[in-house]
Amino acid sequence: MSDQIFIPGFTAFGRKVPRFIIGKSHTVFEWVMIYRDHHPACFHDHNGTSLEDMRMRLDFLGAGTFNMVCDAHGKPMVHLRNEGDAKIMNEVYRDLERDIKQDRIKPLRGWTYCDDAHANDVFDPTHCLIDIEPILAIARVRQNFGETVAKLLAANEKPEPPQDSAAIEHTQTKLEKMAEWVFGLHNQSLSFDQIYGSAKNDPRFVGFTKNELIAAYQMVYSTKKHRRPAGGWPLRSPYSQKKLRHAS
Fold first, then answer.
1. Are 7 and 20 in contact (CB under 8 A)?
2. Exposed, middle or buried, 48 (CB in 10 Å: 0-12/13-18/19+)?
3. Residues 104, 97: contact at Cβ < 8 Å?
4. Predicted model pTM
5. SS3 of 101, please?
6. What's the pLDDT tens digit per position in 124-157?
């Protein structure tokens, strides 16, 4: 991972917070903050392991329900709604939390729990350490990430592996042979589906795919995106010339 991808540092209440360099793995809380370009060290101990630390992290992610003003019956007096970044971060967090609980994401150090004596059985998804792939997968689907994740996506794009020239030549030869066979059926005025049915029963084309036959068919015929005309598709060159030579 390039150490040039980072969230800039800041100063708050006399405390200087250094830039946050993006690594190969971070906690769920850190990844969700990074997703929308927020510095994860937004409060004094963002990696604390207490129940209160977990509640603080959830509040910052728009996923908390702990700081609402409640009446004497414990019901919220103010109905707050997530908006903007809070809504996006809550949704991203919920995706990660769900996938960890359903074992689709395996935290690198296992599940994490609060360390309070009275809450040491409370699972804390915010503190689970995960690698970069789950957050990139979410970003590719949701498309509502910030500048930092855009850089991470660009840095983690995997180039297409170069095709072996012998394999390319083999495929081209195979398609050419199939195209010659398709052309040989020209006088029978068969539809593509009829040709496909014949190819499936021809021992010369064992293991061929329908897409390969389509490619071969389009090497022979000039097809369009509408129904095949009654007289059939016109032949492409050089098959149109071959037809003329056969006719003379």
1. yes
2. middle
3. no
4. 0.61
5. helix
6. 999 999 999 999 999 999 999 999 999 999 888 8
Report yes or no: 20 and 38 within 8 Å, Cβ to Cβ: no
Which amino acid, residue 180? Answer: E
Tokens of 102: 């359903």
Short-list 66, 122, 58, CA closest to 96: 58
Which of these, 60, 38, 57, 141, lies nearest to 99 by C-alpha position?
Answer: 141
Domain ranges of the chain: 6-155, 165-243
Q: Find tokens 């050419």 and name the residue.
A: 176
Question: Phi and psi of 76, rounded to 5°?
Answer: -60, 135
Which residue, among 146, 147, 213, has the nearest Cα to 179 in the 3D structure? 213
Residue type at 247 in one-letter notation: A
Residue type, 123: F
What SS3 class is residue 235?
Answer: strand
